[in-house]
Amino acid sequence: MGSPIESEKSASSAPPSGSGAPAGKRPGPFSLVLSWAGANKRYLFASVACASVAGLMTMVGYLGVFNIMRAAYEGTCTSSTLRDNALLTAVGCVLQYACFAASSVLSHKGAYKTLFDVRCRAMDHLAHAPLGALDERGVGRIKTVLVEDVERLELFLAHSIPEAFMYLTGPVAAFAFLCSVNAPLALATLVPFACALVILAVIFSRMNKVMERATAALARMNAVMVEYVGGMRTVKALDMGTASFARFRRAIDEEHGLWCEIARKTGPGYAAYLVVIECGLLIMVPLGGWMFATGAVAGSTYLLFAFVGSLYLTEIRLLQEIGTKLAQVGSGARRVQELLDVPAFGGGRPFPDRADIELSGVGFSYDGSVEVLSGIDLSVREGERLAVVGPSGAGKSTMVELVSRFYDATAGTVRIGGVDVRDIDYDDLLRNVAVVFQKTFLTSGSILENIRMGSDASLEEVREAARLACIDDFVMGLPQGYDTEMGSLGNRVSGGQRQRIAIARAILKDAPILILDEATSAADPENQLEIDAAIANLSAGKTVIVVAHRLGVVRTCDRVAVIEAGRLSCVGEHEEVLRRCPYYARAWADYDRARSLEIGFGASASASAPEAGAPASASGASAPDPVSAPDPLAPPDPSAPSFVAPAAGARAASAEPLAGKEARHA
Ligand SMILES: Nc1ncnc2c1ncn2[C@@H]1O[C@H](COP(=O)(O)OP(=O)(O)OP(=O)(O)O)[C@@H](O)[C@H]1O
Ligand SMILES: [Mg+2]
Predict the structure, then answer these.
(1) What is the rounded CA–CA span in Å between residue 128 and residue 343?
(2) Can you say whether the dihedral through the CA atoms of 454, 455, 460, 463 is positive or negative?
């Protein structure tokens, strides 16, 4: 199949380097991190400068102590020698502290600004990526990258870089000084260092092999955890506690096992490294002593090497910790880059003036092998209302998602106003197509923020949208009104109220194209009237595609399209489709039967009882009657006949989506 994604996101939102470059020429993870730092590098450079001075200051203490020892050895030590060198050491300490503090502040400033930029860039990139690419990765894995892997960059930028300079500059300066005094002895000081480096290389190679697996295990644990907590309601409802907890436990066990393996493989090496790097005294004291005894070096030189020469390299042991962090940073940076490399939707033309929709020869496959849609030719005129019906799994949702470009068609073309949706600027397209799903997503902010969804609409505009969505009264009845946090409401918001909040969003968006994917099928009878009225307000004057499970919706649309097994089996006006399409005729016939059952039921129970199976049916006559609800897409008219009666009695349990027939049709 042809790639559904034709272009990467514009360079401004792509990482400065990396994206789009051939894999072979990719910069390493550390160059990547530095390139992401962008203008924040100035803080990092300043931090490195301060850290280097702080590193040099370590040597001042050694120098002070050495001066005193040498004076004592030569018999020239006076109180002023002690005072001057004590002062020198103190000044060195203060300067080291000041420089290190400045370095730390600067590096954190640069690091957190970089983290902010990388997270924003990644979120912006994901917002432009096809849903399929996000599904493939899963919420847990994406969370691991955005939270933990990005956080690791802080280790590199705020700690590893300045600390590496700090721990290196002092020893390098000391080595240069020692070389100027006695080169052979200075070189001998490097023997423990060389051995330690070999040990370090072995530790790193072992670490790197396991680290990838450890991070993958962490990502898996995150994914299972997110699933477990997110699906808690289902887990409890179906009493799946033990089974799903077993998966969670396995993921934790796997992670724990890997860290034990890391400890086993690197622990002994690390101990050897620490011992070797600190064993300079074992070489310097006998070697320097022998040279002193043979007259090759002066007593003061022997003291210098025995003291400074055997200690200055111990500073370097901290580099091992940096190395361990770098292994984690490297794998984290690679995963961040992988996320930024997810091809994103582009397109540059503004949204067209006309809002008609045309699908020509459209085919789609989620996985590249199974065709979910094929050969769809369908056009929707501007201002027309098209109902899409068909059996469950036929591809209705998939088809409408191609219009809003949640996915790109893998064959054929989807056009709006004559322009291929892939050529329309993606943000502009999303601004002009409003989608209301059955499953409503609400964020954790206030109700006001939930309706605004990032727009700068005033409170009055939000309230007007909420009034049209028939949710204003409910919100104003809350103690904190529109400032009520969604989290604080908990279960006090019903599914229908959530849907009306989503509809208020769509009204506020005022897009010329409106897609309703079963937006009302989950509503309970109490909410039905209000949702229907809200949808009527929402759809006025728009090009509307409504994926319908309720025949009432279908009858108020201009035309009906029937999708069966991924193909458009019939399209036309209701009467015509009824004649030509067996599925559609059967669905209406089913409704007839369900309706007569309901009438029978209603006659024996209560003339005004809500539909059977609805939660409110037990509550008696006070609940609004969904059967007399207005059509959602029709102008609000309380006297209009109803089509909203999915099923009754036995039929309700096996309801095919279109399980009913409106009374008018009968
Ligand atoms: N994200 C996905 N990845 C892979 N396959 C998918 C995905 N979403 C849907 N499908 C498959 O594509 C087919 C069409 O699904 P779609 O959701 O479009 O059907 P539908 O007609 O809307 O069904 P329903 O009426 O039950 O909502 C189904 O076989 C479904 O299993
Ligand atoms: Mg669907």
Answers:
(1) 9
(2) negative
CA–CA dist 576, 560 (Å, integer): 9
Phi and psi torsions of 411, nearest 5°: -145, 150
SS3 546: strand
CB of 397 shorter than 6 A to ligand 1? yes
71: number of CA atoms within 13 Å, CB side? 16
Residue 531 CA, distance from chain mean position: 32
CB of 393 within 6 A of ligand 1: the answer is yes
Q: Is 509 helix (H, G, I), strand (E, B) or coil?
A: helix
Residues 18/35, Cβ–Cβ less than 8 Å: yes
The answer, yes or no, to whether any atom of ligand 1 lies below 6 A from the CB of 140, is: no
Bridge partners of 570, per DSSP, are 562
Q: How far is CA 600 from CA 612, 647, 659, 663, in A?
A: 12, 13, 17, 14
φ, ψ of residue 540 to 5 degrees: the values are: -60, 125
DSSP 8-state assignment for residue 206:
H
Close Cβ partners of 335 (under 8 Å, ≥ 6 residues apart) = 144, 145, 149, 215
User: What pLDDT does residue 620 have?
Assistant: 31
Map residue 568 onto helix, strand or coil.
Answer: strand
Residue that wins the pLDDT comparison between 628 and 377: 377
| CB-ligand 1 contact for 398 (6 Å cutoff) | yes
CB atoms within 10 A of CB 551: 30
Using DSSP bridges, classify how beta strands 567-572 and 411-416 pair: parallel, antiparallel or unpaired. Answer: unpaired
Determine the distance separating the centroid of ligand 2 and the alpha carbon of 393, expressed in angstroms: 7
Pairing of strands 543-547, 513-517: parallel
Q: Determine which residue's CA is closest to atom 29 belonging to ligand 1.
A: 393
Can you read off the two tokens belonging to residue 290? 């022998």
Residue (of 557, 559, 543, 459) closest to 508 by Cα position: 459
Question: For residue 397, which of 440, 438, 345 has the smallest C-alpha distance?
Answer: 438
The model's pTM: 0.63
Q: Is the CB of 130 under 6 A from ligand 1?
A: no
Give CA 103 to chain center in angstroms.
32
**Phi and psi at residue 130, to the nearest 5°:** -65, 150
Residue type, 367: D
The type of residue at 169 is T
Ligand 2 centroid to Cα of residue 428, in Å, is: 25
The pLDDT value given to residue 625: 34
* Closest C-alpha among 85, 4, 67, 1 to residue 414: 4
The answer to whether 214 and 221 are in contact (CB under 8 A) is no
**What is the number of the ligand 1 atom nearest to the C-alpha of 398?**
18
Measure 356 CA to ligand 1 centroid, in angstroms: 25
**At 484, is the pLDDT very low, low, confident or very high (cuts 50, 70, 90)?**
confident
Ligand 1 and 657: CB distance under 6 A: yes
> 188 with 243: CB under 8 angstroms?
no
Q: Higher confidence at residue 289 or residue 659?
A: 289
Which among 345, 361, 340 has a CA at the least distance from the CA of 407? 345
Is the pLDDT at 627 greater than 80? The verdict is no
Considering the chain, what is the average pLDDT of its residues? 77
Q: Distances in Å between the alpha carbon of 285 and those of 69, 291, 317, 515? A: 15, 10, 21, 83
Dist CA 663 CA 577 (whole Å): 18
Is 428 exposed, middle or buried (CB count within 10 Å of its CB: 0-12, 13-18, 19+)? middle
How remote is the CA of residue 567 from the centroid of ligand 1, in Å?
13
Question: Diameter of the chain by CA atoms?
Answer: 121
By the 8 A CB rule, do 489 and 501 touch?
no
- What's the CA gap between 471 and 461, in Å, rounded? 14
